[in-house]
Write the structure tokens for this entry.
Amino acid sequence: MAAPPGRQGAAGSALTARPCDKMAAALRAAAGLRLAGPGHGLVFTRSAFVARKNNYEHPNWFGVGLAFSTSAALWALLFKQHNEDVMEYERRKEASKHKCTGCS
Amino acid sequence: MAAVPEEARGLPPPPLLNKMSAWLGGAGWMAALLANGFSQRPLLTAGVHRQVLLTTVGWFAGYFLAKRTQYVHAKKDREMFEYVRHHPEDFKTAGKKRIGELLEDFIPIR
């Protein structure tokens, strides 16, 4: 969907503007605002520390492993906490049966 | 847990599948999808580890938030019912009117 040659500089008059010309103009404006990424979209995230293109050919396996292991640990902790809560509630219910229930 | 005091353990704990957990887990998942969108990655298939982690964090936070909510509501209820119990004169229910008192007397006209 490249604009035909010879139309690089002109935004095109209303009579001759086509959808691809409008898109090219929008991308040029976005490039001026540093918002245009490769392809047709806008990019909003940039590293604050190092300017570097993301390389999706080499995944960050350490990060992936850390994320999955943290998730597994959190789920285990959640199940453990829930089971403890249920047991504590049952225990208190049994204990309160032996007490008088005159006052709330 | 600082968020949930000791006496809250006398309340029945919320189930693992509860509305608050589901909502916050969904919010975490949406955050991961949004990050994919902003970084121009495929929306659903990229960064699955990120999606799983953020959903888990949301679910975890939702469980403890649900427990704390339950505790706060139960405490308010307890205080309210105690007040009602100690001040019965303020909470008299109006006597129920019988239907016979509401209707006019029936005077047959023949």
